[in-house]
Amino acid sequence: MWDIIHREAVYLWYYFELQISQILPYWILGIIIGSIVSVFGKERIHKAVSAIQDKHLGIFGIIPASLLGIASPLCMYGTIPIAASFSQKGLRDDYIAAFMMSSVLLNPQLLMYSAALGTTALVIRFASCFLCGIAAGLLIRLFYKNKQFFNFAGFSERASRDTDPNIFMRLLKNIGRNIKATGLWFLIGVILSVLFQRYVPSEAFAKLFVNNRGFGLLMAATIGVPLYMCGGGTIPLLQQWLASGMSMGAATSFMITGPSTKITNLGALKIVLGIRHFALYLVFVIVFSLVSGFLVNLIS
Question: Dihedral of CA 278/283/286/289: which sign?
Answer without folding.
Answer: negative
